[in-house]
Amino acid sequence: MTTSTRTLGGLAPATGRASAPVPGPASGAAAGTAPRGGALAALFHATATQAGVAVVVVLALLAALVGTAPFARQPTQGTEILVPAYAAASFVLETLTAALLFAMFHVQRSRALLRLAAGYLFAALMVPAWALTFPGVLSGLGVDAGLQTTAAIAAVRRLGFPLFVLGYALAPVCSDTSPRSLVPILRTVLAVAGLAAVCLWLIVEGRPVLPGFMADDRDVTRLWYRVPAVAILLYGLAAAILVWRRRFALDMWVCLVLVSLTVELALMSWLGGATRLGVGWWAGRLYGLAAASIVLLVLLSETTTVHLRLARAVAAERRARQDRLTAMEALSATIAHEINQPLASMVTNADAGLRWLGKAEPRIDMVDAALRRIVADGHRANKVVVGIRTMFMTGAQEREPLDLGALLRETVRDKASEARAAGIAIDLDLDPALPPVIGNALQLRQVVANLIENAIDAMTATAGRERRLRIAARGAERGEAEVSVADTGGGVPPELAERIFEPFVSTKPEGMGMGLMFCRAVVEAHGGRLWVAPARPRGAVFAFSIPTALVPTNAPEVSR
């Protein structure tokens, strides 16, 4: 078994280089990139910290390349024994990365993730055969796979991984809307395993006609140099597409993987003279493993962050449920009073209307006024009932990727007529790179609607000043989307600012104080937070933040 993959010899293709969806606001990514793409990672844009880490890793790789270059052609002795250890490390890193990417796909259903996971799995499955056929590894057992076998396996692996990455880069930024199922994952795993098996079978059965990559156990022929050249060309093409599309943070880490693979090939194939087991040959593999480890750690870190965020959301949701039950105990004592007030008023106005109609000369104007008061009291009673029903509606806990900008635009459109009637101008300021979020459309729309209605009521109660409502949304640094509703009303008294989200606390004489409590419960159940601050020069700003989506997806239009 003479051969080896001197240049490429080995495996670096994938080595676990994937990465995380970037938490951030893009993290940040994956999330369809909302603004440009989706959210593979919260992303749309990587955070400054992630970009800094990537730059440091690239500089370290280049520094290592420069530092190793003078010694790259020096041979080593007796290092064949380390090949199985290197192969095991590569196999573990790539398998773990593939498993994490498959898990992310199961949540976000992005075909891009599925293709990238398939690439890592393919690279991992080729590793054992490469190590077992490596010259000198099993020679003591009388195993001889032929001079060209190892190099042929390495060539297939080197060229196969970037093809999968190209598929990832070219994949549409959208999610599969079919029900979540393990079938696509199992089908992909079986297909990749079958592809790897077919490639290995063809290589083993076709040993007599394999390309002459190796001149002897350590040196390659000129034909071999075409493999790293084509591989680097594919790396560059994939990286260019990823940079051009700029979809999400995961793309940045994949580009880092491609850079590390390019450095690895440069050391092994050209600076190291493509000599197997030389200093450059080993250095390239070690640098590739180091880069792969860093990226895998990032992916694990981001996955852990996601789980912590979900745990926080679950805890907040449980707390919110308990708060709602507690509030309902108090509400049960006042609900009759709250409903009875508008009902009593409706009865009084109806009686008055009948009396005005019963006069010798009916007062139609007074009857009209009484009917209008009845309608207003009916709407008031309806708001009480709707507010309670919304908190406990069926399906209120279902979550899906949402286009937050579309949700805000639709809610504002629904409230526009009410604002115009009150003489209020609405400004809608949406960040063009606003990332999608994971949430319940019904609940979030109700939150925004409650905040808008409160702002309209606050400005209607004031006179002699400009009435303007400003609704803004943008991505935040911590992988969150932030929405603010600012009015020019009377503001929130300082003594109520700390208690405004508690049940039965309201600045409106007729208010129940349940609306803001509901808003806080919903936002916290989504893993976010809700707060109030004074507006300048007057008024109040109610704002909330919720985590962004993690993986690319074309967020569905919010149903009306």
TrEMBL record:
Q: Which top class of enzyme applies to this chain?
A: transferase
What SUPFAM superfamilies has UniProt attached to this entry?
A: ATPase domain of HSP90 chaperone/DNA topoisomerase II/histidine kinase, Homodimeric domain of signal transducing histidine kinase
Q: Does the keyword Nucleotidyltransferase apply?
A: no
User: Could you tell me which SMART domains the record lists for this protein?
Assistant: HATPase_c, HisKA
Compositional bias ranges of the Low complexity kind: 16-29
Key words, A-Z: ATP-binding, Kinase, Membrane, Nucleotide-binding, Phosphoprotein, Transferase, Transmembrane, Transmembrane helix, Two-component regulatory system
Per UniProt, residues of the Histidine kinase domain are 334-550
Q: Name one Pfam family in it.
A: HATPase_c
What's the protein here called?
A: histidine kinase
The taxonomic lineage of its organism, from the top, reads:
Bacteria, Pseudomonadati, Pseudomonadota, Alphaproteobacteria, Hyphomicrobiales
